[in-house]
Amino acid sequence: MRTTAEPLYIQIAEEMRHNIRIGKWSEGKKIPTEFELCDVFHVSRITIRKAVEELVRENLLTRKKAVGTFVKHRKLLDDSQNYTIVKSFTKEMLELGIRIETLKVNVIVSHADYTIANFLKISPGEKIIILKRLRGIKNKPIGYFITYFKYEEFFSLDINNYKESFYEYLNSLGINITNNSEVVEAILPTKEISSILKVSSSTPILRRCRFTSDAHNHFYEYTECYYIGSEYKYFIDFTA
Predict the structure, then answer these.
(1) Residues 54, 190: contact at Cβ < 8 Å?
(2) In this structure, is residue 66 part of a structural domain?
(3) Which residues contact 115 (CB under 8 A, 6 or more apart)?
(4) Do the beta carbons of residue 188 and residue 205 sit within 8 Å?
(5) Are 56 and 127 within one domain?
(6) Cβ atoms of 203 and 189 closer than 8 Å
(7) What's the total number of domains in the chain?
(8) Between these two residues, 176 and 73, which has the higher pLDDT value?
(9) pLDDT digit string (tens) for 120-136?
(10) What is the pLDDT of residue 229?
(11) Is residue 80 part of a domain?
């Protein structure tokens, strides 16, 4: 539903984003042309173009010159792929001598859309838990994390259980993450992310999408991590 609180192109971008989430615009498929979208949303071409640019910046859409605009592929890597060793953000920072704090936590019970269901290997509409955490040092944000996993009765909805390492909490429940794959990219923040991290829209952000699982317990997790580029370094060790 559109409101007057946000620019029109932001509201149109959210409606487009919803089309991707529910699978109406599926991965790899060409979306309608700018002129067609003008007719669908009853707005100007300039508004459509700005909305599309917003989703291109979020890496949800990609443009192909003289061909059109397409939904990007964002599928979970196959189980046959090699995985890196999973390490929590809390542990990463401790290894650098930094004690990280959880500044805000929000635990939401929701239902999986098409994309999240695909990542968690469940059916669209199944109950999930969305864990949103803002983490930093002395009230200064460093990273914002949105974690998705299938709802189970034994998972706590108490925010106090999610203020420290999420993986240590899982271990306490007998869930041991053995598989981990990640996609890391540099982006410019959306309006929402820049507001949460308290940075300008031109501040470089490191976006890290993490897929983890414990196949034995049929547990799958998908997390989107957004780090302020100047405040976080990502280390990779390929030592055998």
Answers:
(1) yes
(2) yes
(3) 20, 21, 23, 74
(4) yes
(5) no
(6) yes
(7) 2
(8) 176
(9) 999 999 999 999 999 88
(10) 76
(11) no
Q: Helix crossing, 45-57 with 34-41: angle to 10°?
A: 110
Residue with the bigger pLDDT between 239 and 101: it is 101
What residue numbers bound the domain in which 193 lies? 89-231
Q: Could you read off the pLDDT of 183-203 as tens digits, one per residue?
A: 888 888 888 899 999 999 899
Q: Are 52 and 184 in contact (CB under 8 A)?
A: no
Give CA angle at 59 (36, 222), nearest 5°.
120
pLDDT score of 54 more than 50: yes
Tell me, yes or no, whether 65 and 160 share the same domain. no
**Number of C-alpha atoms within 13 angstroms, CB side, residue 217?**
18
Map residue 2 onto helix, strand or coil: coil
What is the tens place of the pLDDT at every residue in 3-42? Answer: 566 788 988 988 898 888 777 888 889 999 999 999 999 9
Main-chain dihedrals φ then ψ at residue 40, nearest 5 degrees: -65, -45
Nearest Cα to Cα of residue 130 among 159, 92, 170: 159
| 60, 62, 134, 136 from 20: Cα distances, Å | 8, 13, 26, 31
From CA 231, how far away is CA 169, in angstroms rounded?
26
